[in-house]
Specification:
Elements lengths: L4 E6 L5 E6 L9 E6 L4 E7 L2
Antiparallel strand pairs: 1-2, 1-4, 3-4
Length: 49
């Protein structure tokens, strides 16, 4: 069975920089502060579909 992955999108510029494994136990969208190479800052990244 293949592993399902979702992208993390920057909340400022909207670029999808990171991929994470989708876990069935997580009911809310993942929000993590990560570095965005397009903005040049640490910004909030949210899980997208």
């Amino acid at each position: 069975m293949a592993v399902k992955k979702v992208a993390l999108a920057c909340s400022v510029c909207g670029s999808r920089n990171y991929m994470v494994v989708k876990k069935p136990t997580r009911v809310e969208r993942l929000e993590v502060k990560k570095f965005c190479k397009y903005c040049g800052n640490h910004t909030l990244h949210r899980e997208t579909m």
